[in-house]
Design a protein that fits this description.
Elements (H helix, E strand, L loop, with lengths): L4 H9 L41 H24 L5 H34 L20
Helix pairs in contact: 1-3, 2-3
């Protein structure tokens, strides 16, 4: 059964396994622990041969924090809607809280982005689940 790009986007936005669609991306009862493998289909989320793979999710988290949180605070302060002290406090607190709250989404969205461009890497689409094994064509 082939996984379409629309299914990959839906699964990414809902924090599901990109291969089977089960809600198994994160360990049950935890906020920040990602499963190494999908308990439903065995798909490997953590990639042993590519230590920097999830560095992209950290960059995504950083970018979304800047654009969706810190930039609006800066604009509110610049337009004198809020005071400078308030903006500094909001920016400091938000710069720590927002990335933590967005962590789960950034990990899921990073997988979604990768498999959106390389859907043939998914085992459901006949791939091996990871790059570096000559299946990039």
């Amino acid at each position: 059964m082939n996984v379409t790009r629309i299914q990959i986007v839906h699964r990414g936005l809902t924090h599901c396994c990109p291969n089977c669609g089960a809600r198994t991306l994160f360990k049950s009862g935890t906020l920040f622990q990602i499963n190494q493998d999908c308990p439903a289909c065995g798909f490997r989320f953590e990639r042993d041969n590519d230590e920097g793979f999830f560095l992209g999710s950290m960059s995504l988290n950083y970018g979304v924090t800047l654009v969706c949180f810190l930039l609006p605070v800066l604009l509110l302060a610049f337009n004198k809607v809020i005071g400078v002290t308030t903006a500094i406090v909001l920016a400091c607190v938000g710069a720590m809280l927002f990335p933590a709250l967005f962590y789960r989404s950034s990990r899921s969205w990073w997988l979604m982005n990768y498999y959106f461009f390389f859907p043939h890497h998914l085992p459901a689409n006949g791939g091996k689940g990871r790059a570096g094994e000559d299946d990039n064509v």
